[in-house]
Amino acid sequence: MSQNNISLSKMRRLLWLMGVIKIPLIAYVRPKLMHLDEKSCKVRVKLRRRTKNHLKSMYFGSLAVGADVAAGLHAYYFAENSGVKVSFAFKAVKAEFLMRAMTHVTFESKDGAIVEKAFQEAMRTKERVNQWVKVEAKNTKNEIVAIFDMEISVKVK
Prior knowledge:
By secondary structure, the protein is α+β, with helices and mostly antiparallel strands. It contains 4 helices and 6 strands; from the N terminus they run ααββαββαββ. It has one domain (8-156): Thiol Ester Dehydrase, Chain A, CATH 3.10.129.10. It has helices spanning 8-22, 24-29, 60-82, 112-125; strands spanning 32-36, 41-45, 86-97, 105-109, 129-138, 144-156. 35% of the residues are buried.
């Protein structure tokens, strides 16, 4: 696959547009794309009024949005680099919450190679391809607060 290496600022704009136009909950939570390349993706969600629960920790829904974006942006990244349209969604999620997230949370997926392989297979077969990816959520002390296993489903249009 030819890599155009889409800039981080362009991917940030595309994430913002996706939230404003297609998925308003992403816009509401305001995840910030910190890093994105072929191998890994890092997204930060700030702990603030709109992302907190009644215990003053990060709300489950906010954690889910962060994991969704960190895992899903790779499919979008590879589609943008290839110039093809892709349809992707999450088919299943397994989450393990290890401690309350009392600070901003950084979500990291290091499974870009897995998503790229699924994307290439979807391009080759024109069928929907499912693959599991892992996302770790860490607080500002670099402690893991949650681990998400997410089954991404990719189809090239």
